[in-house]
Amino acid sequence: MKTCRSALLLLLAMGVSAPCFAHHMAVVVSKQNVVTTMTSAQLSKVFRSETKRWPDGKSVTVVLHRSSAGESITLQRLNKMSAQQWRGWIADHKDSVKLVDSDDEVLTYVASTPGAVGLVDVRSVNDRVTIVRVDGKVPMEDGYLPH
User: Fold this and answer.
1) Number of domains observed in the structure of the chain
2) Alpha-carbon gap, residue 69 to 82, rounded angstroms
3) Which of 34, 32, 27, 26 is nearest to 54 (CA)?
4) Which end of the chain is more exposed for a tag (fewer CB within 10 A), N or C?
5) Domain that holds residue 106
6) Residue 17 pLDDT exceeds 80
7) H or E element: which one contains 134?
8) Does some domain include residue 146?
9) How far apart are CA 114 and CA 60, in angstroms?
10) How far apart are alpha carbons 48 and 36 in whole angstroms?
11) pLDDT digits (tens, 9 = 90+) for 25-45
12) Which pTM does this prediction carry?
């Protein structure tokens, strides 16, 4: 009984000390995209469809999830919008945004579309896309994206 209790306490301590991965998102672009770093302000303009072209002239295609709490919270904070304002923005821009159902669909679309940009859970990132540094930071680093 004492061994079981000790094991349970050890597991509890490990769980509490482990980092929380909730809402840790990564900005991803196609491997053909020349952009590998952006400021938060530049990224906000890209995700609000204010920036229409990348520096190399390719059209920007914003890829968003139809439903992703982590993505929504991150983009609301990045764009300084309430949840209601963000939902309204999505509804108003459905023609200029590609909506998908999963991180895998975001990654597939971004990998095959040179001007595409999307957000995925950091644990979903693969070698088919490039992770964009934001404000000089990488995912999971303090200050990478608001979450």
Assistant:
1) 1
2) 13
3) 34
4) N
5) 21-134
6) no
7) strand 133-134
8) no
9) 9
10) 19
11) 899 999 999 999 999 999 989
12) 0.78
